[in-house]
Amino acid sequence: MGAAPSALTDSSSASLGQFGCHGNSSEKSQPLSTGSANSFAPSGHSRQSSSSSSATARLQQTLKRRVAWLRRRSSPDPARQFRAFIADWSSADLRVLLDEFEALHALKDAHLGAAAARPQCSSLCQDLGCLLRTGLGSDARLILGGVAFPVHRAVLAARSNFFARLFANGEDYDSAATGGADYPLDLCVPGGLDPELLRALLAYLYCGEVSLARLSAPATVAALCHELGAPGRLSDDLAQLLDTGHLADCVLIFEEAEPRARRIELPCHRALLACRSPFFAGVVEKRLAAARRHRRRRLVRCAVHGGGDGVGDAQLAEPPLALVLDEAVLPRRLAPAMLTCLYTDRLPDCLALRDLMDLHEIGRFLELPCLTRASEDLLVESLCPDTLVPVLDWSGAGTGSAWVHRQARLFLCEEFAALAVQAPRVLTQLSRRELLAALRSDFLQAAESDVLSALIAWGEAQVAARAAEIVA
To answer: What whole-number distance in Å separates Cα of residue 163 and Cα of residue 440?
Structure first.
């Protein structure tokens, strides 16, 4: 239930105050001198005076006696101990205590809410909706009633068997550079298919959202399912699109970084890359503009030669957009995971901790918010005694995640007592900064004896580590 009131934490504050933690001491206990506290920290000198060593030994013995006294005093049943403590309190005092606990509980809820806040990230549905509205990289046009609707063949083919058959015999030339071929559309729908209904239908296929009441009418739904087929879940359909590489118009290339490394090519779809990353959107737009200029020059040359040399659309075909990636930025082993997240908003569960950290940095570099958020979510889900220290160290660095760092610190405060008893080795591996942050937290869930035990173990580990460095 968060931090206890000041009336209940006097003895705790008396001991923690000697280590720079918050709280005022009202209980008389053996004071710790400044010299002793300094000698408790590891020294960088190879020679230590006998007085400093004896001060350190006295400090350790004092802390150990304090822990033993606290454990003898503490009851095995905290609830019974608390009832005995407030047995002679008046109803007014109990009401004040209850009000303080409620205020602390509300403060903790506000603290947790602030720690959980992070920048907004657009979802797969939102990005595909933006792609439909802007028409970036569209490679086909649906014609209905004299109105042209720029679309992306790969997305519609993945969502509907009707469009998969319609685009099966599409043009071979680079349709994205020309705006795409025209496909007149004729569907049997009650009341007729008009541009407004087609626009709502495309929004549903791209985003999975129904934006028109008529589209949800039972007769219309039945007719569309009969004509188009019932689409599956958006992320599942796009995952299958990635696996099959159907209508792929882009390829990620990893050159041979080492003599024995083989060249790897991963087919994908530039429309998906562009809508999910501003970085890839800039690259795709620049390449498409270059392809349009190149196509115009070839058409001019054909016209100059009289068009009789047999140069047609098939010979004006452009190869898929090739993106050669530097393995220093995106290692080839992580490229499939990145593409999976880009198409589905999720990462495989089998990734190692180091891979998740690398993917977070890749997401920041390539401006892929979906990859950054998915890696953060898995890092927080993986928090346990074995991963706590490496996650704290990575997230607290400049290239880490501030949101993951806050969640890891909350995990440490919530599980401090359990770690002190079941995994004390984890607490000894904490940096001084993280240990102080936990001890200064208003919501540290640990008894005074557990805190002092952890401090003793941490100090002994620091002294042993410094001694090993001196010997080495």
So the answer is: 61
Predicted structure pTM score: 0.76
Whole-angstrom distance, CA of residue 217 vs CA of residue 116: 40
- CA 220, distance to chain mean position in Å, is 40
Distance CA 469, CA 428 (A): 17
Q: Determine, yes or no, domain membership for 115.
A: no
pLDDT, tens only, 157-207: 999 988 998 888 655 444 555 567 888 887 777 777 888 888 888 998 998
**Rounded Cα gap, residues 466 and 208, in angstroms:** 59
Distance CA 90, CA 43 (A): 52
Q: Look at residue 147 and tell me if it is in a domain.
A: yes
Task: Report d(CA 447, CA 141) in Å as an integer.
Answer: 68
CB 319 within 8 A of CB 172: no
Q: What angle do CA 12, 17, 23 make, to 5 degrees?
A: 65
Q: What is the pLDDT of residues 48-104, one digit of tens each?
A: 445 556 666 666 677 666 666 655 555 556 777 788 888 899 999 999 999 998 998
Of the pLDDT bands very low, low, confident and very high (cuts 50, 70, 90), residue 279 is very high
Quote the CA–CA distance of 245 and 247 in Å, as a whole number. Answer: 6
- Per the structure, the complete domain to which residue 413 belongs is given by 383-472
The answer to whether residues 235 and 303 belong to one domain is no
Which of 244, 266, 295 represents a domain boundary (last residue)? 244
pLDDT of residue 67: 62
Paired tokens of 429: 């591996």
pLDDT at 469: 86
Do 226 and 175 belong together in one domain? yes
Tokens of 369: 């918010």
Final residue in a domain of this structure, among 220, 244, 268:
244
